[in-house]
Write a structure and sequence with these properties.
The protein is an all-alpha fold. It is built from 8 helices and no strands.
């Protein structure tokens, strides 16, 4: 019987893999290269999390993640022309994957007995690290290092998840609310152009001085 968290994990894998493959196709990668980018996007954060938690990465014990990425690849191949015309496709699938993986990482850390603050960090790593690897592979500045609200959406979702548990909400309801928080924070931040302050460097000061 598949648990609710496992279901979230599979859906998140599919969504993140599509986001990676979609960007790889825009960069004119071949099928193998696009699959690798999609797979790295889907399992990169979870792998880093599991290594830090000293457990075997989940994809090494269950091939479903490799298969799920293959289905995502097939999905992009079949519906690629439609996806290209949908400018928000990458953003939506990336936001879904970010939300679901944050919940999965948070839950796994709690189950292993780690305190909530460690779980929030692990949830953020699970959600955001795959995107970092994806962006490095396609030679882009990772979203997490730009001024967009990305990793902070994971942190917000993790905090809300933990607060839901503190008021004795059912586990699955806490997971839904936590994931929805990540998704909504990400969507609203982009829609209303809410960003974090940019850390100014020497070049900015020199530019201001010339003005």
């Amino acid at each position: 019987m598949i648990s609710f968290v496992q279901l979230l994990d599979f859906i998140g894998t599919f969504a993140f893999a599509i986001s990676g493959i979609r960007l790889a196709s825009a960069k004119r990668f071949d099928w193998f290269g696009a699959y690798i980018v999609g797979l790295a996007t889907a399992i990169g954060g979870g792998t880093l999390r599991d290594v830090m938690l000293n457990v075997t990465p989940v994809w090494m014990t269950d091939p479903v993640y490799l298969v799920c990425t293959a289905f995502a690849m097939l999905f992009v191949i079949v519906f690629g022309k439609h996806l290209i015309h949908l400018n928000n496709t990458f953003f939506i699938f990336d936001s879904i994957g970010l939300a679901l993986f944050t919940v999965v990482g948070f839950d796994k850390s709690l189950v292993l007995g780690y305190p909530f603050w460690v779980s929030i960090i692990m949830g953020t790593i699970t959600g955001a690290a795959g995107g970092v690897i994806r962006d490095v592979f396609i030679n882009e500045i990772p979203l997490i290092f730009r001024k967009e609200i990305y990793a902070m959406a994971c942190v917000a979702g993790g905090i809300v998840y933990w607060l839901c548990l503190q008021v004795n909400l059912e586990s699955y309801m806490s997971q839904i609310i936590g994931g929805a928080t990540v998704f909504l924070v990400r969507i609203l931040a982009v829609k209303y152009q809410i960003t974090l302050p940019i850390l100014k460097g020497e070049n900015d000061e020199e530019a201001n001085g010339k003005e």
